[in-house]
């Protein structure tokens, strides 16, 4: 068997977000949340990776590895530091980032909102504010007017389906409330409206495709399993609502990390799967609690997204692994890309794959412990140290080909993907 070839215009990128990498996002809701007593955040973001100053180096690394796309987010809390006051200097900063991408031949994929809010908006209720959609539209309009001509792909809101759940039900994002389902649904509606208004505002200033990036995990139901109301399943239903609400968009951003398995007696515990021959066996895990090592999850989520969106182009805006073992990361990306290749061969319209993430960065309430990066970052000097996976992935991107033999990661061979349904 020969190498597996990808289309010439396929995007191979790395993803980041502003708050997780820039550092000192002082004017945001997350900054306060991290420093408040009693929140579940392991440690504050502080200087993060200092990418606010070191973005030329980051963009240079992405290009040097051989990738052809960079996904990053622009920070609302910097661009609109007080309500209605927009900063030309901050917009110029993000313009310089876009110019740096273009100068190195990278397609910039820009997210307008990745989890964080300006403090002034948080003080008005944040996502719950009845003015949320209108304010988001105005911010998108201003930012796209300044940046639109340089953007390659525009994403409105990152994982909007999780905003209500994380902030008002599970309490791991600001405002850290638990069990308030009414507020959660109000947030879902506000954010859905915000996506539509924001997308329309961005389109006024760019020819780039505009879409939303949704989190879908591969939900696998074994014979006899009955879909129920576990948090993952409820979340998947909200994702599907967002997919319906984004029918007018030019593409869907798909973000998948793992699979969830359900048997006749309900959700399987993390790391357990039922094997016909051996009964319940352990499956390999990642450092994220409950996230199984299962790169083939993309097969299920690509097929489902394509079906529900009537074949809209898909950009894989996030997929990655938190692990201390870089060889395991190489095996993960290898298997993920093999799965993508299979889906391309089945005829799915997939435009690119963005590995999450470029740098070991601030993993929200997990602090800096989980290591998703292709590049390690010294927490004091901010020196960047590319890992072997960065060069390995860069070679695949450069040649737009995967070697015929799959990378095996010891000790457990990677299980095969679930068959198409
Ligand atoms: C988010 C990223 C996060 C990653 C890994 C995604 O849900 O968009 O910000 O770092 O998952 O947890």
Class based on secondary structure composition and strand pairing? alpha/beta
CATH superfamily: Glycosidases
Low-pLDDT ranges: none
What would the principal axes of the Cα set say about the shape? globular
Biggest sheet descriptor: 8 strands, parallel, barrel
Number of helices: 13
Report the CATH topology name. TIM Barrel
CATH class: Alpha Beta
Kindly report the average pLDDT value. 94
Distance between the termini: 27 Å
Relative helix content: 25-40%
Physical arrangement of strands within the biggest beta sheet: 2-3-4-5-6-8-13-14
DSSP summary, beta strand count? 17
User: Beta fraction of the residues?
Assistant: 15-25%
Describe the structure.
With 421 residues, this protein is α/β, with parallel strands linked by helices. The chain has one domain (4-402): Glycosidases (TIM Barrel). Helix content is 37%, strand content 18%. It is built from 13 helices and 17 strands. It has helices at 18-21, 29-35, 51-65, 76-79, 88-103, 119-122, 132-147, 163-169, 181-203, 231-245, 297-308, 326-345, 388-399, and strands spanning 4-5, 11-15, 69-73, 107-113, 153-158, 210-215, 218-221, 251-255, 259-263, 266-267, 272-275, 279-282, 314-318, 350-356, 375-377, 384-386, 401-402. The strands form 5 sheets. An 8-stranded parallel barrel has the order 2-3-4-5-6-8-13-14, surrounded by 6 helices. Strands 7-9-10 form a 3-stranded mixed sheet. Strands 1-17 form a two-stranded antiparallel sheet. Strand 13, helix 12 (326-345) and strand 14 (350-356) form a beta-alpha-beta unit. Helix 8 (163-169) runs antiparallel to helix 9 (181-203) and helix 12 (326-345) runs parallel beside helix 13 (388-399). The model has no long low-confidence stretch (mean pLDDT 94).
